[in-house]
Hints:
The protein has helices at residues 11-15, 18-30, 46-52, 54-71, 80-95, 97-109, 124-131, 134-140, 175-182, 206-222, 233-241, 243-250, 261-268, 273-276, 286-291; strands at 4-8, 34-37, 74-77, 121-123, 149-152, 186-187, 227-230, 258-260. By secondary structure, the protein is of the alpha/beta class.
Amino acid sequence: MSLQFAYYPGCAAKQVQKEADWSAQAVARELGITLHAMPQATCCGAVSLRESKPAFALAVAARILSEAEAMGHNLATICNTCLQTLSYANHRFRTEPELLDQINHVIVQAGVRPYKASIQVFHLLWVITDQVDPGLLKQKVVRPLKGLRVAPFYGCHNLRPSEIFDGKAGEKADHLDRLIVALGGTPVAYDGHDKCCGFHVMLSDATEMRSMVAKNCLSAKGAGAEVLITPCTLCDMAMGAYQKAAEVVSGQEINLPELNFAQLLGIAMNISSDTLGIRRLHVDPHGALQARGVI
């Protein structure tokens, strides 16, 4: 199977969570995955556009998917919300040909190539765990995690609704757990692993969002987690950047290092901290890594 993809990192990875993008590209290079830039791609519109202007949201998705299709590659992303948004649209285009015709009529008038619904949408995490040669991944892990207790935080937009992911994910997804094991770590089981990070209620109910962050992080830490990883730039932002604010709301110290999955993979590959953007993290993971003898 070709490991070439049209790469759609999403807005957050280009503006705020840049370290997720840097890390994704760094580990992809090491694993023989080619990520082709999509220069014409725009914001996916996320859930807010789909709820407020559903037809417009489908047209935006078709435009993005059409660019990847014209490049001759499936699409890979590192944002759960982008994954869900584009997978939802792609699922509808594949199962509702009349809808695809209607949306194509709209985007063609804007000068966009009609979408033929011939490509698939993947998360880069799925590519690494399902398509990369396990032997190559094992070879690249030169600094194993030595039993580091890692909490996998899946988030919700790569789990639900499961039917749009063509069996590649859904409620029983285990990609993060399998990656942690492959890196020599110990996955931590805890109640919050498949919950929402709270990002999408950040503006409507800031207190509730911070409470959600605190509940998820404290659940992981209470189960013995030394670090937490996510596959989503928006979850990274919520569980990392808002962790201090969550401590204020909850009245409890959290102090749990949160990394993007590609950063932890990059650490195990001995990719430099600067390349992985470790200095940009809001809780320094070096103490936990040093205690285990990883670094």
